[in-house]
Amino acid sequence: MAKTTKVGIIGIGFIGSDHLNRLTKTIANVDVTAVCDIVPGKAQKVLDEQGLEAKDYADYHELINDPEVEVVVCTASNEAHYEIVMAALKAGKFCFCEKPLALDAKQCMDVVEEEQKHGRRMLQVGFMRHYAPEYVQLKHIIDSGQIGAPLMADCRHYNQTQPEEYDSTRSIIETAIHEIDVMHWLLNDDYKNIKVYLPKQTRHVQNKNIRDPQIVVMETKSGINISVEVFVRCQYGYDIKCDVVGEEGVAELPTVPQVALRKDAKYSTEILTDWKARFESAYDIEFRDFIAHVSEDKSPVGPSAWDGYIAAVTADAALKSIEEGGKTQDLDIPESPKFYQE
Fold first, then answer.
1. Are 305 and 108 in contact (CB under 8 A)?
2. pTM
3. Among residues 111, 228, 251, 305, which is most buried (max CB within 10 A)?
4. pLDDT computed for residue 1 by the predictor
């Protein structure tokens, strides 16, 4: 009989409540034994809504130090990721942390150094696109050489209207961070530089200090050019694109299949509006893999703290490019430690 893994979830917001539902109703052999949220009563309300029972802690330290909690899942606000992850690692517990790993590269490096004290990987970062079947297929096509050497990539990350407080910084560290991570993984090539262009402002932003959309342009060390359009107040839906152009052909990420409708002299398909629905299968596969490893006291094999560090270094440089009026920022990412190459 498979062992039941006891999990504690910190942060029961939109993604946290979704993962709570996933871990209790979709992923086998998991017992969510404890939850925690900084807002009093919020976690218990979600437990009641989902018909679940678990210990409800007001202080995340108590959850981490609970001897019944074997694995910590961090879905708290970005600002809290660093402290929660460090506390989980110091307690010697496996940890899954939603992206970003931390708010900047220095904090991520602290996590990298703390994890290495254990002599093995203890942490996985929630870059779920590594598990999305279409991205896995795309990587296979690139790695197998079917399109020849990659030359450039054209990406899009459009989301529907975000609240006013979703500023230019969050467009990078919460939205563009996905492309920053996944393109590094797909191309297996470190970044050489990055530049952010600020196109004409959408009228759906009233605050002049917020810039939306943005265009992030990166160059890898081998010379591959990557363009990422980031538009978090797109009005028509949630739209993800990734085309990789090689010497012999183009690999194009497919759109999500939808039933085509022929009606009123029109032929149409719907566009998703929910990012959660777009990557639901990826989240499921991601957690199945993570739990399968840690339940047997094995290190997780998904996106690592080093992946989180690379993403943070690149995001920091993107933010600096914005601050300096679009100036190109050089990157000097060190070689991955052997610890993360095994």
1. yes
2. 0.95
3. 305
4. 61
